[in-house]
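[agent] plan:
  1. take the single chain provided in the ticket
  2. run structure prediction with default settings
  3. attach structure tokens to the ticket
  4. add a short note for the reviewer (M.T.)
[agent] executing step 1
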Amino acid sequence: MKKKYAGGTIYSTKHGTFLAQVNHCYHKYKLTLDTEAQAKAWIEMTVARLERGDKSVDLDVRDAMRAAVMLPPNVSLCDAARAYLLANPQGVKAVTIEIAVADFLADKTSAGRRGRSLEDLKSRTGCLARDMKGRQVADITAKDLRDWLDSGKKFSTNRANYRRAWSNFFGWCVRERLCAGN
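[agent] step 2 finished; step 3 output follows
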């Protein structure tokens, strides 16, 4: 049996497997996979890589294809990898909140942030460093931040400004590998 997909063809074999094939510039890329869904995903990935100009199509993608099929239909492999990294923060540097805030502010200063913006960031991240002194950045949770916001009288605009500054800070922490997620 033969099925055509955009950029490729899937052949079902007599062994119950599926041969995925992509023809590109007089070259055939082939891979045998366990399911038709894996074959279709491999074709889509291979066509995308070839269109980007990547001629070194990695044929060792069986694990990724198997993993993608194991997931529920509305969860991508990237989402699963992100969830795994959040649950298993490997490669995250152990840095206290005080050091991270100081480095963050120094980075923003050297990037040429305006004085007023810097003062706002310093105020909103500084209170976080003061009240969570000694804690590792990777250990601070969204619940900790919500509890901190709920502990005092902060009006909705003020709360939104704190969240905006903290999102900026924790986004920087993710890029610096100080925590797994924002």
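[agent] step 4 note for reviewer: The longest strand covers residues 18-24.
[agent] ticket updated
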